[in-house]
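Onboarding guide, step 5: your first structure request.
Type a short instruction followed by the sequence, for example:

Predict the 3D structure of this protein.
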Amino acid sequence: MSSAGILKHIKQIVRVIYSKDEAADFCKKLKNLMDLYGRSPAILQRRRKYEDRVVLDEKDAVLITYPDTIYREDEKPLNTLRRFLETKVKDAISSVHILPFFPSSSDGGYAVIDYKEVDPRFGTWEDIQRIAGEYRLMVDLVMNHVSSKSKWFLRFLKGDRRYGDYFLWSDNRLTMPEVFRPRDLPLFTKFETAIGTKYVWTTFSSDQIDLNYKNPEVLLRIIDVLLFYLSQGAEIIRLDAIGYIWKEPHTTCVNLSKTHQIVKLLRRVLEYVAPYALILTEANFPYRENVSYFGEGHEANMVYNFSLPPLVIDAFARKDTTYIQKISDRTRDDLLFFDFLASQDGIGLLSAREILSNKDFDSILRLTESHGGLISYERENRTKAPYELNITYFDAINNPNNPTDPLAIKRFIASQAIMLSLKGVPGIYIHSLLGSGNYYKGVQETGENRKINRETLPEDAVDEALSDVHARQHQVLQRFLQLLNVRRQIPAFHPSGAREVIASDKRLLVIVRQFHGKAVWVLINVSEDAVLVPEYSGKSDITTKTPFHGRVDPYSVYFLR
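The system replies with structure tokens like these:
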């Protein structure tokens, strides 16, 4: 589409969101902003590199990590991260999602104090740019809220009229039970301001103040932040908690139509300024609401595959891949998923709840608790229900009460192979790459369930473990890297390729991936039993470069040509 065509669509979208007069002023300011950032050297260089189009292939895989997950006492963590990437991971992954590296006051970086600063504890924008020069960089755009310590909110507290409409507030505490609550906390938080007591909308916590997108200036400033990230080298923008940004009375205040219009607008802004860049929406909701953010190709480029993590846990617990086959059958081939099993957050349950039977849903809750994990809850219409599992993925798949289990690493790698084999772009959390166990100390010290999967690790301890061939971390990393390096050499894993799940023994997941005449058969065993599949005899195992003889060993993975 031409630039003029994109601008026309932008005006149409903005006119749906705001009044005629507001839209005219907004579009004029937005055009100036886009043209300004469009001259950024980082953006111009990438437009030439990617020939003004989104480029993804079978080599794409994303590492998800905090800037300081691995740290060294005498060094800024972003430099430590870069060394880990260069020496340990190398080109097994193509992209890095550096979780919020901005100054923040809580929630693992998601209570942002200043959108345009790198927390000096982590490093500088130059450190970010160096990583972005070697890997495709994913950055969080935390749209729904800012920190209570941010300049915007502090000016609100001081009675600055400009910031009075930046937030949603009331003179009295309101009761709105119809609003969906992802956390079992009050919807409004009491603050004393220069103009009196105000009750302010806080979806996620008292420290995270929701922004008011009915004020066009707020959206314009957030678009400025998005374009700034692109100018610093970002190529994938993750829209954090996107479903919550627009509020209307007497609704659940999630996934409303104007939220979708805003995502559509952001997609058009990227097409105008940086057509190589991608939008990934984080909308942890049931399947239909999640995939609605594709918007028939006009909104997100990619959405999270939220169904997958709990269903893989279920598959290994029950030795049965039926549910995974079920979601694969219903998934349209033209949708691009961000396939992941673990992240900095918990393992979301909203998608799984509509797929699993009540018995199987309850079973994974019990399994999580028996493996030392925790369960967090959401609230809607005064009803409390499980929202996410808080546990490392290694301990979800393996029972930490049995630390000498000889099959633990094979079982875990088999679970990760499912993520790598489905259609989409895989995202690997750093604690999965290292086979980390539950971090109970973090939960005890903070009272936050999600800390169980957010341990920070001294670099010398990581190096020592990775150099010990008997250590779990060494074995998990090496087998993970082997899978990733084999995968990136198989064109059939191209994210635009076809995918078919083949009916087979329930203990197996059999997937055929095809692209431009090239095909690969993936066989994954989720049980401790050997399973015979003579129909695949005679094919060649790409990983071992040996003939396949029709036997799938316990917790084994085969890529067959």
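Each response can be followed by summary notes, for example: Residues 20-37 form the longest helix (18 residues).
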